[in-house]
Amino acid sequence: MYTGKAAPDAAADRGWLLGHFKDPADPRHSEDVEIKWGVHPKGEERARWVRGEERTALQVLISGRFRLEFPGRTVVLAEQGDYVVWGRGVDHSWYAEEDAVVLTVRWPSVPGYRADGPDGPANGPSGG
Predict the structure, then answer these.
(1) Hey, which end of the chain has fewer CB within 10 Å, N or C?
(2) Phi and psi, residue 51, nearest 5°
(3) What SUPFAM superfamilies does the record point to (predicted)?
(4) How far apart are CA 10 and CA 8, in angstroms?
(5) 76-92: string of b/e by CB count within 10 Å (b at 16+)?
(6) 3-state SS assignment for residue 105
(7) Residue 28, Cβ neighbours under 10 Å: how many?
(8) Residue 20: left (phi > 0), alpha (psi -120 to 50), or beta?
(9) 25-38 pLDDT, tens digit each
(10) Quick count: other Cβ atoms within 10 Å of Cβ 43?
(11) Cα angle vertex 23, ends 94, 126, to 5°?
(12) Domain locations in the chain?
């Protein structure tokens, strides 16, 4: 069992609360699903588009305003509880139009995904 608070716990792992990247002895370790408590200041954007996505994702707006970009489509999460689901193979990026908090659930939890910046890999526990 593990109890915690999303904001401080998420800060320890770039927002991610649960997934394959947690120590296997930690109850938050999972190879089936990843969960992120994403706190994004206004103007923050994903460093690079996610290309060749291997997971399905659900993103729910907790507060603020958050824009997701998909090929040929833009989705704006503007009211608490707005959400979007996308599947494998769907390229995407995001931008915080206002200070925003979003809950992201991705499955399965796939090692090797990370966005470190312009020269880093395109996906990752930092992405969404």
Answers:
(1) N
(2) -125, 140
(3) RmlC-like cupins
(4) 5
(5) ebeeeeeebebeeebeb
(6) strand
(7) 16
(8) alpha
(9) 999 999 999 999 99
(10) 10
(11) 10
(12) 6-107
Q: Report the mean per-residue pLDDT for the chain.
A: 87
Long-range contacts of residues 10-17, Cβ cutoff 8 Å, at least 24 apart: 10/36, 10/37, 10/38, 10/39, 13/125, 14/125, 14/126, 15/39, 15/125, 15/126, 15/128, 16/125
What does the pLDDT look like over 65-114, one tens digit per residue?
A: 999 999 999 999 999 999 999 999 999 999 999 999 999 999 999 876 55
For tokens 């995904």, what's the residue?
113
Q: How far apart are CA 96 and CA 116, in angstroms?
A: 18
6-107: which CATH topology?
Answer: Jelly Rolls (2.60.120)
Bridge partners (DSSP) of residue 102 are 38, 61
Reference 44, options 72, 61, 67; nearest CA is 67
Beta strands in 53-92 (DSSP E): 56-63, 66-70, 73-77, 83-86
Q: Which residues pair with 73 in a beta bridge?
A: 70
125: confidence class by pLDDT, cuts 50, 70, 90: very low
Query: Tell me, what's the pLDDT at 114?
Result: 52
